[in-house]
Structure formats: C-alpha cells, structure tokens
Amino acid sequence: MNSIGLLSAGDQSWSGVYQWGLEFVRAIQTIESPVLTALIKNITVLGSELFYVPAVLLVYWCIDEKKGCRLALLILLSTWINSALKVLLKHPRPYFLDPSVGISTASGYGFPSGHAQLSLVFWAAALPGPLRKRRAWLIAGSITLAMGFTRLYLGLHFPTDLLGGWLIALAILGVYYFLLPSLEKLLVAGGMRMSMIAAAAVSFGMNALYPGDRRFGALFLGFSIGYLLMRKHFPFSASADVPGTILRIKSGLIFRGIRFVLGMAGGLLLYQGLKVLLGDGSALLWRLPLLGAGYYELGRFFHYGILGLWASAGAPWLFLRLGLAVPGRNWEKA
Question: Residue 325: which of 256, 276, 247 has the closest Cα?
C-alpha cells in the first residue's frame, strides 16, 4: 500500500508535499553506511538538550553571565514555541509514513524541526556580533545546515520541517536583536518589581497557552527570578578572574572549569533528589494523605522552577562563597 494512504483526513492536503519529502529523504539515504550512520547519530545529539543545557550554563557561569541569561531564556522560549506548534499542527515524521526510512526514531511530531530551529537560534545568538561579522553568520549557517542534513539522513524530518524551523528561528532572532535591547532598558528602568512581574506573566502565558509541558514555564520563571535576585543581592562576574591566587595566570581558566563542574554536579544532584521527592505520581511527597498524585503537575512546576533558581542564583552564590568568582555589577548598574 502507498505509505501516503496512512495519512489522516486532515493531512491529505499535504500528501503531495509528503510524497516529495519522502523521495528527498530516500535520495539522501542512498549514501547510507554503518560508519556514516554512527557519525551522524553522534552529530545530531549536538542539536538536543544534552548539548544546549551545558553550553548555555557554560556561557552563564564561565564567560558572560548577562549573555548567558539571554541565551537561556531565548532557548527556553524557542523550545516552548517549537513544542507547542508540533502539538498544534500534528505533522508526521517521514518514518511514520514509511518505516523503511526510519534509521532513527524520535518522540513527538515533525513540524517544525526543533533541531533546525534551535541550532540557528543558538549559534546566531551565541557567536560574537553575528549581525556585523560575516564569518559568524557563516559558522552559524554551516552548523545549522549540517544539523538539518542529519535529520533528513536519519528519516526524522521532511525538508519542509527544516524550512519551517529556520523561518521560525529567523523570526525569533529578529525579536532578539531588534526588540530585546529596548525591552531590557524598559525593565531596568521599571525596577526589580516590574521585572519579576514580567517574568511571572510570561511564565503564566507559557503554561496557559501550552499546558502540555510545564517545564518551560517553570524553568523560565525560576531562571528569571534567580537572575534578578543574584544581580540585586550577590552579583557575580563570570568573565572576571579571581585575583591574588597562587596559580596566577592560569587561575582564570582553572577556576572557571571548577565552577562549571561544580555547577553541573549540583544541578544533577538537585534534579535527582527532586525527582525522588516530586518526580511522578508515586514519588515520596505524593504518598502523603493530604496531597496525593493529583498534585503531580504542581510538583513538576516546582521541580523545574527550583532547577532554574539553582542555575541562575544558587550556583553563582556558591561560587562566590567558595572564592571561585568575584562580585559583579548589581541590578542598578546592569
């Protein structure tokens, strides 16, 4: 039977696009080999949270805390948009229609491609001066195209999924570069209270518009509030080296490495501990008579909100207490 015949009635209008997409994927898979497949499976991991979470935290803790905060919130919003659109549109992946092209599998729907969208958003925002430096855009574009190729090769996306992801990424980047500076000035002028209210409003909107996954709104709120508290009460500088150490010149790189390892270890311990306490309907807290498994979603929100607080405020506080970082500028001077 023609694999396109498996489409639901709502997808029939896309049958021609899907047929063309399947042919495109099959053409790419003519170069398939075990060695190439193993290489591509490793490369495509660089477009997942296994890469983006450590990468963003590395920037925040060890390079530039302000840029790291922007990247963290940008990636969270981008991921939320992508996940919500996938659930709303419910477009199939290639191997849903033709299992023979499924070299790998992935959860959820296909359009828009999260790997395509997030790779462009991250690299275009993370690289220095992409609006002014052609080389930075070339690097970001090359990485994004390579990531897109891996998704086609593995049979996880149609070409239209990649195109949709890139277009959404460009729209997000447009807001990031042209509207964010004005918004930041407005929030700083409005003070700490306005910024906290704005963060709570965005988090509420994320959960109201897409209640299917509470993680994004919780992480956004936790990270935002933690960053504001850090800048107000115990600001730290990710870029400044600790002065007067025996290690002298090499102290900067070594201390930054220690910060990253310590921050990640603390985050992993906190994640596992909260998972035991709040993780699912059978977790310890939900066994109490007054609570029960019905509070699972609330617990999930607290779980990821606390992780956001650790990343933006808890870890920097610990770095300062241990002498691994130096104070930075407070909120009024941000």
Answer: 256
Q: Which two tokens stand for residue 118?
A: 């997030």
Q: Roughly what angle, to the nearest 10 degrees, separates helices 159-178 and 114-126?
A: 30
- Which pTM value belongs to this model? 0.88
Mean pLDDT, the chain, rounded, equals: 86
User: Which of 245, 264, 244, 309 is CA-nearest to residue 62?
Assistant: 264
What's the token pair of residue 64? 């530039």
Q: Which two tokens stand for residue 101?
A: 């092209």
User: Cα 271–274–280 angle (5° rounding)?
Assistant: 110
Give the mean pLDDT of 195-214: 91
Q: How confident is the model at residue 190 (pLDDT cuts 50, 70, 90)?
A: confident
Tokens 């849903």 map to which residue? 96
- Assess contact for 237 and 327: CB atoms under 8 A: yes
Range 171-176 average pLDDT? 93
**Torsion angle in degrees (nearest 10) through CA of 261, 267, 268, 273:** 150
Cα(225)–Cα(208) distance, integer angstroms: 19
- Find, among 4, 37, 2, the residue nearest to 158 by Cα: 4
What does residue 236 show for φ and ψ, rounded to 5 degrees? -130, 155
- Residues whose CB is less than 8 angstroms from the CB of residue 207 and which lie 6 or more positions away in sequence, other chains included: 214, 217, 301
CA angle (42 as vertex; 39, 47 as ends), nearest 5: 130
Q: Is the pLDDT of residue 72 over 80?
A: yes
Beta bridge partners of 14: none
DSSP per position, 256-293: HHHHHHHHHHHHHHHHHHHHHHHSSTTSSGGGSTTT-G
Q: Report the 10 Å Cβ neighbour count for 237.
A: 17
Q: Strand, helix or coil at 237?
A: strand
More confident residue, 334 or 44: 44
